[in-house]
Structure to design on (243 residues):
C-alpha cells in the first residue's frame, strides 16, 4: 500500500524568511509533495521564494495557499501532524519520522493530511500543537539540535516517500539449466585433460571439486556461455600454437 502524496500538504505557520519557503518548496517537490500552505500576517517576497525554489519548484510557490490564521489553514484537514523539537508532559508522546510515515500510509489514502511546521526560531507553541493528532520529533546529535526548516521538511517528506515506495522488483537473470551446466563441465573436463591438469586415470574425482566450487556461485546462463567461450578460445590457441 502507498501513501497518497496528493492528499499531503505542508503547512508553514509564521515563517520569517521568504527564502526558507522557497527551499521548502524545492525539498517538497523532490519527494513528490506539491501542496504548500503558509500562515502569514503580511506578504512575503515571492521573487526571493522562487530564487530559492529554483525554476523546478516555482510552480509550487505560485500555487501557495495563504491564510491569516492557523485554524483557518487547518480547517479542511482530517489529520494533522505537528513537528516539535521540545518534549515534555504538556506536549504528550512523540514519534519518530519513520513511525509517522508508517501511520500516514493508510490515513492518507482517504484523508487530507497536514504536515505542520512552526517558525524557524520558535517552532510550534503548546497552544498550536493542540490542533495536532500526532507529534513527531527528528532525532539529532547533542552537539547541534537545531534543524533548518527546509531540512526538517525534507526529512519528513523523505520518510513518507520511502514508506509509500514499493520495493524495487529484484531482477534475477536466467540461471543455467542442468543441460547447460553439463555441457560446460564436459567442455572444461576436456580442456583440463588436454593440458594435463586432470589425472587421466580418475578425472571425475577432480572434476567433482570443480563442480562443487562452481555450484556455490549459482551460475547464470550467460556466465556459462562466457566460460565455454573461454574454453573454446584456449583450445583454439593450443591447437594453433602446436601447429
Amino acid at each position: 500500500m502507498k501513501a497518497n502524496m496528493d492528499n499531503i500538504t505542508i503547512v508553514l505557520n509564521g515563517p520569517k524568511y521568504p527564502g526558507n519557503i522557497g527551499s521548502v518548496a524545492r525539498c517538497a517537490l523532490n519527494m513528490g509533495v506539491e501542496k504548500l500552505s503558509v500562515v502569514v500576517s503580511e506578504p512575503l517576497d515571492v521573487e526571493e521564494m522562487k530564487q530559492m525554489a529554483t525554476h523546478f519548484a516555482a510552480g509550487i510557490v505560485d500555487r501557495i495557499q495563504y491564510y491569516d490564521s492557523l485554524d483557518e489553514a487547518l480547517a479542511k484537514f482530517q489529520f494533522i501532524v505537528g513537528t516539535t523539537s521540545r518534549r515534555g508532559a504538556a506536549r504528550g508522546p512523540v514519534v519518530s519520522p519513520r513511525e509517522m510515515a508508517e501511520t500516514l500510509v493508510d490515513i492518507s489514502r482517504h484523508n487530507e493530511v497536514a504536515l505542520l511546521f512552526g517558525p524557524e526560531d520558535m517552532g510550534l507553541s503548546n497552544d498550536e500543537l493542540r490542533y495536532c493528532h500526532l507529534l513527531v520529533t527528528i532525532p539529532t546529535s547533542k552537539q547541534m539540535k537545531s534543524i533548518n526548516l527546509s531540512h526538517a521538511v525534507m526529512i519528513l517528506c523523505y520518510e513518507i516517500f520511502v514508506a509509500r515506495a514499493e520495493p524495487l522488483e529484484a531482477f534475477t537473470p536466467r540461471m543455467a539449466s542442468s543441460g547447460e551446466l553439463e555441457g560446460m563441465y564436459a567442455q572444461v573436463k576436456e580442456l583440463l585433460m588436454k593440458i594435463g591438469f586432470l589425472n587421466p586415470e580418475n578425472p571425475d574425482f577432480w572434476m567433482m571439486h570443480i563442480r562443487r566450487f562452481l555450484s556455490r556461485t549459482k551460475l547464470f546462463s550467460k556466465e556459462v556461455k562466457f566460460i565455454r567461450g573461454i574454453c573454446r578460445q584456449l583450445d583454439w590457441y593450443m591447437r594453433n600454437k602446436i601447429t
The domain at 178-242 is CATH 1.10.8.590 (Helicase, Ruva Protein; domain 3).
